[in-house]
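Morning F.,

Quick status update on the modeling queue. The single chain you submitted on Monday has been processed. Sequence for confirmation:
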Amino acid sequence: MARRRTAKKPRRRTQKPMIKAIPIVAGVVSANALTQLFFNNNLRQFFTGTSGDGSQHFTLRELFGAGGISNYGIGGGGKSFGEYVKQNIADGWMTAAGTLILAKAVPKVIQKVGITREANKLSKAVGLGTIVQL
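Structure tokens below.
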């Protein structure tokens, strides 16, 4: 049998995909900020339809007209949906901008400081090291 000309390449070990917690949290925080900005509701209230009273609070149920709701949360005001969204943006753009900037910056700061490394060590010690990664 002839000799190989090159060395045999080692097989790479494949790892199971882990759940990355920081991008999930950053995405939820960003989605919550945008929902608060446009619809004046947090993410949970927007999806569940448990909004407080007020014409500036919109839910997903109201937007799709589910359950016979067709007034888009407008409870007596003479404004249209677009005008309410415009007012919500004018009222909350600064808070939403700050939240979006922090949602993008905090994971990078956490990684630079080394908190992720310590948290990943802790998750391995607890037994979640193969499932969740920070």
